[in-house]
Amino acid sequence: MLNMRPYFYSPRHVAASNGLRSATDYFQNFCLEHEMELHDLKMMFKYRQKKQYHGVVHPKSQRKRDYTPRYPLLHSRIFCRPPSAFLSAFNLGYRPFSTLVHRVCEILSNQRVPFEQSSELRSLARNLEPFHVSKIIETHDNVDSALTFFYWISSRSSYKHNMSCYTSMVRRLVADKKFSPADRVMILMIKYCVVKVQIQMVLDFVNDMHHLGLTFSLASFDALVVQLGKFNMVSESKNAYKEFLSSGIAPSLKILNTMINILCKCGQVEEAEPVVAQIYQQNMSPDAFTYTSLIHGHCINGNLDKAFGIFNDMASKGIHRSSATYTTLINGLCNFGRLDEGLCLIDQMTQNGVEPTQRTYTVPITKLFALGRTEEAISLVLSMRERGLQPNAHTYTAMISGLAKSSQLEVAVGLYHKMLKDGVIPTPVTYNTLMNGFCGTGRLEFGYELFLWTRNHKLVRTETYNTILKGFCAVGNIDRAMILFDEMLKVGPAPNIVTYNTLIKGYAKRGNLDNAQRLMEMMKENGCKPDHCTYTELISGFCDTNRVGMAFELFKEMKVQGLEPNAVNFTAMVDGLCKDGRFDDALILFREMQKMGFSSTIETYNALLNGFCKKGMLSEADKMLNEMVESGMLPNTITYTTLIEGLCKKGGMDRAFKIFQEMEKRNCSPNLFTYSNLIHGLCREGRAADAENLLEEMLKNRLYPDEVTYTSLIDGFISIDKLDHAFLVLQRMMNAGCQPNYRTYSVLLKGLQKEFHEVVEKVATQNSSFDGDAPDTKDIITFDTFCNLLTRMSEIGCEPSVETYHTLIGHLCHHGRSSEADMLVKLMKEKGLNPNEATYCCLLRAYCKDLRLDSALRTLDLLNARDFKLPLTIYSEIICALCKVKKHEEANSVFDSLLDKRWNGNDIVWTILIDGLLKNGELEMCSNLLRTMESRKVVFTKSAYSMLEQESLNIHK
Fold first, then answer.
1. N or C: which end of the chain has fewer CB within 10 A?
2. Is 682 within 8 Å of 646 (Cβ atoms)?
3. φ and ψ at residue 355, rounded to 5 degrees
4. d(Cα 957, Cα 750) in Å, to the nearest integer?
5. Quick one: CA torsion of 793, 794, 796, 798, rounded to 10 degrees?
């Protein structure tokens, strides 16, 4: 077994791992171990944090101006970062903790001079921190004097209470049975909460105080339920409400309305109805707020008819329908595809004398932009301005979002600058929207620079990180995403379910399902429960990599975890079983889905049809199609395309074209894949000319061929010995901006090789002196053929690019021909082109596979010198290859150089130690590298440690 001990991200993680309740408990243990006072340790942290300001260095004599722009100008490449300044806690001149607290207590005890008049106390107050105040409240002998001091110190502009001050004060008051002042302090404590964790702490604290006699008053419960609603804490709100009703205090209309609003915001209208009944029981009447909340709940559930019913009831009962009421219904209509009705309602509200607000316009403007109805959206903005309503941050953000989603990012950026010019301050959501736009259009570098700007200006939220993580995962850079995730765990903001699901999807996209599953285990450890989306990503990923057994285990695990599989989960599992050829199991699961009351979706039927067609089981596919139609479900484009693909592969082109014509009759538009399958089928039958005609029809319908379509056509012409025409198709392909892929070049190389062998055979036949059999090398693409391809490309005006060389080098590397790949790299450099990072990764993998480790190390040194950041998987392959030939010292050196860069500690453990060394039986080397991680203070989570330990035990067994 390895000699290991866990390393964690923060005191909070260490506390949890040692059975401690909080980071404070950890600090207390730390202080005992190091013979320090807890207050001194905390004081150092507090002073460092308090005295660090953006752009300012204290004391006053050392102030310096900050010339950083307040907001970034996008595309100007000026994403300035604020200068950071740190002050040592030791030159601030504070008094020792015990002396300061003791002296304040003495002043409070002086009955001759009221402490409010003490100049000494006013002087000392400048150095008081919340932990001092908390201690003063706990230790001062007079609770009334402590309470007066509590209010006095909070009125000073330089001071602000924290949670410990409030809890200390409430404890003192409850201990003295002073429940009325304790209730007033509790209201302040509730209102102090600005994050969900704090309000949860308040609930736990109040529950403890309840046993000592403290109960909610009408005012304190009112404050509590408002805060619970703000953080959407529905279950906590329900529990608190039940407890409050059991106290016998009659609830106010405000409390009942707040509860109705909390329930309706999450669509729980049925549960809100008993609360509405409670209003009548208390001899009160629902008001506009009550009805608006109910309308909102029905809109969330898509019950727009019921929402309209309540809306009309308000008019019949003489209840004023405010702008909020209209806005709620307008938003509901827009969100459920009834945009034009929503726009009409805006006109109706103005006719009824109700003035729209900025919120009224926000959602309709967003939807118009998203639907590409740009002119109408701009017209609505102008109408808004005519009413004297200037777009606020939310409206601007909605417009920016709509433009970005409708592929008008440049206009969105221009609108952002207009927003700044108008003096409207962007919100974190504005920046997230822009970031999402940059990442979604392949401009990740702009998105990342904007992320850095927001992070340095303290504008990041969990959603901000989620946006940039999604961007990195979309381009396959999961290593970079995990580094940012590491940052979230260490310094915040805390990751949420979306964070984990984004990263799990990123790993699944790369085919690294082991790490995806490990991340789910880490997610559970950190108290974040996996949801349907988590399991769907993993199930789909395992199915796509032919690991259906693992997918099925996860499917069963969902039920154990209390998550009933939904239609999406069933469809993913059915699709996986079909791909694995387990049609009987797929049909059993499909029938189980139907028995459980799930409506069979078009996606599920398409998954079954796809499975049958790919295996050539066309009769079974026909039966399933008939069942689908009989259930009242009409085939869609994917259904028809699936059938066409199956027929094309079986040579049933006539029937495939009949289905194609039926699609058009049913107004079901063929898509790119429909045409691609037909073109591929025609080419398989040697009808390349017909396939090319179909390509022209495709272009007329404004469908643009992709690399698969062009490659099928190129292959078709090569198969009928029209290589020159195939190169003309390649020329057309590249001129259209479509990059050839691995298969495109493979087809052309085979065509050139075939042409070469035909010439050789022709010459051999004509040469009477030829004796013996020619070597059978038709299946081996010679290096000369690669060079011939590059020459032919140049001849047709398609100069080979970096991507061309990368694809060809990858082809050679994949077939274990790294020496020839080196020759192609040399040729590439002679042409003035430099290999990119992906090319070097191909070379390094090939070197490791061929055990050309001197070449691998030379290349690695070159890339490190150029500050390339290679994926962890490359380092893992190099280290494992070095260990294979017993070059342990070099492996240690590579690992040490790896740690000079920023990585996620878990990722290192998973990728290099577990999947690399331990799976190759290198137990001792794994232990050595773990010690290196310890000495370099690389941290990882408890779950990663447990996995490492378990894997080492498996090796011993």
1. C
2. no
3. -80, 130
4. 49
5. 70
Residues in the chain: 957
**How far apart are alpha carbons 334 and 327 in whole angstroms?**
10
Cα dist from 177 to 129, 167, 285, whole Å: 27, 15, 37
Vertex 927, ends 923 and 928: CA angle to 5°?
A: 120
Q: Are 329 and 307 in contact (CB under 8 A)?
A: yes
What's the angle, vertex CA 526, arms to CA 525 and CA 531, rounded to 5?
A: 85
Under DSSP, the state recorded for 909 is: I
Question: Sign of the C-alpha dihedral, residues 888, 891, 897, 903?
Answer: negative
Residue 239, burial from CB neighbour count under 10 angstroms (0-12, 13-18, 19+): middle
Question: What letter represents residue 359's amino acid?
Answer: R
Q: How many CA atoms lie within 13 A of 113 on its CB side?
A: 9
Distance between CA atoms of residues 680 and 675, nearest Å: 8
Specify the 3-state DSSP secondary structure of 668: coil
Give residue 769's pLDDT band: very low, low, confident or very high (50, 70, 90).
low
Residue 922, classed as helix, strand or coil, is coil
Contact (Cβ atoms closer than 8 angstroms) between residue 327 and residue 359: yes
488: three-class secondary structure by DSSP: helix
| Tokens (6 digits) for 939 | 């941290």
Structure tokens at 184: 């007033």
Closest CA to 940 of 522, 642, 558: 522
Distance of CA 385 to the CA centre of its chain: 36
**Rounded CA separation 609/583 (Å):** 11
Q: Are 250 and 284 in contact (CB under 8 A)?
A: no
Pairing mode, if any, of strands 52-53 and 56-57?
Answer: antiparallel
Does residue 852 contact residue 834 with C-beta atoms inside 8 Å?
no
CA distance 404 to 374: 12
Task: Tell me the per-residue pLDDT of 778-833, one tens digit each, with 9 for 90 and over.
Answer: 567 889 999 999 999 999 999 999 999 999 999 999 999 999 999 999 999 999 99
3-class DSSP state for residue 5? coil
Cα–Cα dist 716/722, whole Å: 9
User: What Cα–Cα distance (Å) separates residue 233 from each residue in 242, 259, 288?
Assistant: 15, 11, 24
Of residues 943, 931, 876, the one with CA closest to residue 903: 876
Tell me whether residue 529 is exposed, middle or buried, using C-beta atoms within 10 angstroms of its C-beta: 0 to 12, 13 to 18, 19 or more. Answer: exposed
pLDDT tens figures, 446-464: 999 999 999 998 889 999 9
Q: How far apart are CA 121 and CA 103, in angstroms?
A: 9
- Most distant pair of Cα atoms in the chain: their distance: 129
- Residue whose entry in the numeric block shows the structure tokens 């600058």: 417
What are the structure tokens assigned to 147, written together? 């309470």
